[in-house]
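2.7 Reproducibility. Because tokenized structures are sensitive to small changes in the input, we list the exact sequence used for Cadherin-13, including any N-terminal residues retained from the expression construct. No trimming or masking was applied before prediction.
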Amino acid sequence: MQPTTPLVLCVLLSQVLQLTSAEDLDCTPGFQQKLFHINQPAEFIEDQAILNLTFSDCKGNDKLHYEVSSPYFKVNNDGSLVALRNITAVGKTLFVHAQTPHAEDMAELVIVGGKDIRGSLQDIFKFERTSPVPRQKRSIVVSPILIPENQRQPFPRDVGKVVDSDRPEGSKFRLTGKGVDQEPKGIFRINENTGSVSVTRNLDRETIATYQLLVETIDVNGRTLEGPVPLEVIVIDQNDNRPIFQEGPYIGHVMEGSPTGTTVMRMTAFDADDPATDNALLRYNIRQQTPDRPSPNMFYIDPEKGDIVTVVSPALLDRETLENPKYELIIEAQDMAGLDVGLTGTATATIMIDDKNDHSPKFTKKEFQATVEEGAVGVIVNLTVEDKDDPTTGAWRAAYTIINGNPGQSFEIHTNPQTNEGMLSVVKPLDYEISAFHTLLIKVENEDPLVPDVSYGPSSTATVHITVLDVNEGPVFHPDPMMVTKQEHISVGSVLLTVNATDPDSLQHQTIRYSVYKDPAGWLNINPINGTVDTTAVLDRESPFVHNSVYTALFLAIDSGNPPATGTGTLLITLEDVNDNAPFIYPTVAEVCDDAKNLSVVILGASDKDLHPNTDPFKFEIHKPTVPDKVWKISKINNTHALVSLLQNLNKANYHLPIMVTDSGKPPMTNITDLRVQVCSCKNSKVDCNTAGAPHFSTTAVLLLSFFSLACL
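Resulting structure tokens (single pass, no recycling of outputs):
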């Protein structure tokens, strides 16, 4: 955009000030050069000049007096700065104060490589300033340059000038800094002969607002003659950025019935222009409201702060009567303090009218009816209510309570989250014979509390009448399960017990018949009339149908209803053990080498299907009538194992050794089992049992397996 008239005047004024400064150079009170730089020497030498200072009060320097910030230095009458004695460290900076009755000034000597010495100038010089320090006289005169942003061609164009009244012949101006020889490079340049400063392209204040440049004069060899002197370039803002709403989406909430003037939300925009100018001074207004009922001006926005507030009465802000509880506002932000020439930006504000619980739920009718069969559970009736509040809030969601008629806790009521209905359920089966009718009193409330001026009325309670329907219920066994304990192997036909079942339908006077439902081993029979259970086979505790000595059977009790109803009863028979199983040995095959030095053959174990005391300790013996003496030996290891060994080496062959094992039952049971012993040829770590016609197991392997079996018992 084109710069405004005030900005053009500022630029012209800047150029006039520069020219005025260039002409007023005859005499300026103070030091001719105020800033010096020297490197820290190894030592400052006594009475050796460090540099020369030039001071003028433009009135002859009468009564000129110098003071140095360090007591180890002085300034002679000719302006030379010298050390009073040999010294090394004096700090990073020396200050020289010059004063006459007409003027005073300060010069600074920066010692590159020196160390800081703390202390204020007032403490160092012990003086109070009585007059302002005049600007030092410099031959290079610069003034800040003001450039409007977004200038158009042509480029380059002159924007300012640097003046040097004492510039030696042949010297040149040099300009450095960011925007010249540092990125962004090439924006500014200086005419090395005239000092005219020009810009090569248009500027953007929002990218860089100021440029800090340095200007100096140099000789033909590039050595600095004077300076560098700071040159500030200020980019003048133009209104080239629209206001932007950056924080959307903008969603506000206000409670229905809120007082007039209630703040809903704040909307603020951002303008990238200079905040110190009207270019970024924003004003807000509402451009459009949707819907525009019941009033086209439901809200107001503070033009300066951006606060959106309600402007209608609380009665109009009633969510239940509004066409739509959601309003959309088009908010406009305009810069230039809202003037017509200002740029604009818009955003949408969504305002939700939130519900408050100002309507109590009401049952759609005072009485509800329900029927349920006895013995059934589940939902029996849905209670309906009406509530004008917002269905998405706790002000609408209903909570039901049974307040009377449920002493046995047979009923529960829960809210259907989709319909808000109360689902009344039977959770404990009802008995027609005990009570055929039930009456419940139920109340409904909201999850959220009502507002103070609203209360629950008679419509918030309802009565439910429940009729229980009689059904033919199956007979019930007493007790269930039924338990009896018997010895195994009792005689067939033995009576175990008589079952008892009753019909809950006491008013129907029905008869009951019994039958076997599940009898896995086929051991039982039941009298269909009187329920007597007897055995039809031998009961065996070791049967695979018996688990942990308990046999399970199921019986049916069937009434004479139409249709008949059935009940199921469980019979648990605990079988006591008798000694009806002979023990057995393992293993039944063993190997031994014909030249073995260890004549141990095998460790035998014994087992018995019966229970203690009809099992171990076992007695192991060799059945001698068929076995020659002085060849085999059996020795007890513990209650369940014994060791078989040879008394001498045998020839390679198969041998059958009858082993007799007896349990501890009364009377005891004995079992004789042949142990087949293979005597094999064992040479060069090879076992050969082929001639013996037996599997290739070494004696050592058999013994190890036997010992492992022993350890696991």
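The helical segments are 5-23, 121-125, 699-712.
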